[in-house]
Amino acid sequence: MRCAVLGPKGTFSEDAALLYWPQAGEIKVAPTIKMLFDQLIQREIDDILVPIDNSYAGSIDSTMQALNDYEVSIHGEIILDIEQCLLANNNYRIEELELLVSHPAALMQCSTFIEENLPDIRTEITGSTARAVQIVKGETRKAVAIGSSYAAELYGMHILCRGIENACNQTRFIHVRRRDKVQYEGDKGSLIFTLPDKPGALYQALEVFARRGINLCKIESRRSGKLRDSFAFYIEFDNLGQDAVLPEILTELGKQSREIKFLGMYSRDRRKKDVYLHGACTGKFV
């Protein structure tokens, strides 16, 4: 099995992949999500696991854009409870810290902790939480990164504080393959369609699902990069045993759309999730 995730080693994507593919053996890494999709299309790898949304940071733009731009299909999902830690190359006191290096999504996930404990700290952005840990590892300044306890162990870092994430922090990852392997069985489906910019276009498109009693569990729009004056809509919908109506939906929706891409049916993640208490983060200094 040739599979890959966002790198370097120590990302939450790698954690998710180890749960999703427990027998995978070696899991390759790439520095960006776009590079993962490039390698997939070029047949250097066959499967990738990428983050699609987070309960605080929302949708991951690079993944959403790649689903629209590349000829791919979705084959599954996994939801990971994210515990963030404050990591440093020395056992600094919180009042000594000068620099915070992190991925933008991690900063949003830990916004309460940062506002309460590091309100004036200088922030630098990087492409992944694990890359942030690598950078801070070699820093001469009193710097910290946001990352996992696994990344701390992997890179020999000190954990200054655990559990700095906001409450109920979860990231959903999707299993993506090339488009020549589209699935038509599962309890959840995804598709992208592009509508003309005119009154009622979205209403008419959503009515295709409503008339058949099909629930939509995610909808997101963005301006189409392919067609002028058009908007692309990404939709996830529940199947609930209605496989027979799928061809009808795709046909009817196709007549209303300027462009449509069916990304496939797949099984939703039904594993038992940990329960988080609502409220502020529960970060504890160690």
Gyration radius, rounded: 21 Å
Largest sheet: 6 strands, mixed
In the CATH scheme, the class of the largest domain would be: Alpha Beta
Integer average pLDDT: 90
Helix content: 25-40%
Strand-and-helix sequence, N→C?
EHEHEEHEEEHHEHEHEEEHEEHEE
**What overall form do the CA principal axes indicate?**
elongated
Count of domains: 3
- Ranges where pLDDT stays below 50 over 5 or more residues in a row are 274-281
Number of strands: 16
Examine the secondary-structure arrangement and name the CATH architecture of the largest domain: 3-Layer(aba) Sandwich
In words, what does this structure look like?
- This protein has 3 domains: 95 residues, Periplasmic binding protein-like II (D-Maltodextrin-Binding Protein, domain 2, 3-Layer(aba) Sandwich), CATH 3.40.190.10; 80 residues, Periplasmic binding protein-like II (D-Maltodextrin-Binding Protein, domain 2, 3-Layer(aba) Sandwich), CATH 3.40.190.10; 88 residues, ACT domain (Alpha-Beta Plaits, 2-Layer Sandwich), CATH 3.30.70.260.
- It is 27% helix and 33% strand.
- The protein is built from 9 helices and 16 strands.
- Strands 1, 2, 3, 4, 5 and 11 form a 6-stranded mixed beta sheet that branches. The chain has a 6-stranded mixed beta sheet with strand order 8-7-9-6-10-16. A 4-stranded antiparallel beta sheet has the order 13-14-12-15, with helices on both faces.
- The radius of gyration is 21 Å and the shape is elongated.
- Pathway: Amino-acid biosynthesis; L-phenylalanine biosynthesis; phenylpyruvate from prephenate: step 1/1.
- It catalyses: prephenate + H(+) = 3-phenylpyruvate + CO2 + H2O.
- Keywords: Amino-acid biosynthesis, Aromatic amino acid biosynthesis, Lyase, Phenylalanine biosynthesis.
